[in-house]
Each structure stands twice: as C-alpha cells, then as structure tokens.
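TA notes, week 10

Several of you asked for a full example with nothing omitted. So below is the full record: structure tokens for the whole chain, then the designed sequence directly under it. When grading your own attempts, check the secondary structure regions first.
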C-alpha cells in the first residue's frame, strides 16, 4: 500500500475514535468503533490480506462502560 493511503486510513481511524468518544448514543459509539477498526485494518494490512469481517473487528474492540 502506498504511504499516502496508509496515512489516510490511519487519520480516518483516529477521527472515528474521537467521534466514538464524543458520541452519546450507544449505537453511534459502536458504529464509530467499528469504522475505526476497518480503517486500522486497511492502514496496516498487506496487499495479500483480506479485510477482516466487521464481527471479527467488533470482537476485539474495547467496549466502553456505557455499552456494558
């Protein structure tokens, strides 16, 4: 992956994490964390790797106390 693409996906992940922390609606929090996971996967994945499924990403995300 080109460096510009990797930087873009990393910045998008950071933005999604900030939005997740600011969100009040539990569904919005979950959506932002899921999107952040997808962006991080794209930022750090090699060319031959398949993107992870959303369920796999969600299973590894920390669940904020609000959603427990």
């Amino acid at each position: 992956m080109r460096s510009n693409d990797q930087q873009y996906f990393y910045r998008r992940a950071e933005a999604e994490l900030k939005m997740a922390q600011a969100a009040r609606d539990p569904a919005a929090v979950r959506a932002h964390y899921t999107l952040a996971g997808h962006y991080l996967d794209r930022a750090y994945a090699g060319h031959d790797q398949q993107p992870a499924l959303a369920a796999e990403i969600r299973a590894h995300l920390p669940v904020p106390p609000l959603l427990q």
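The mean pLDDT is 81. Use that as a sanity check on your answer.
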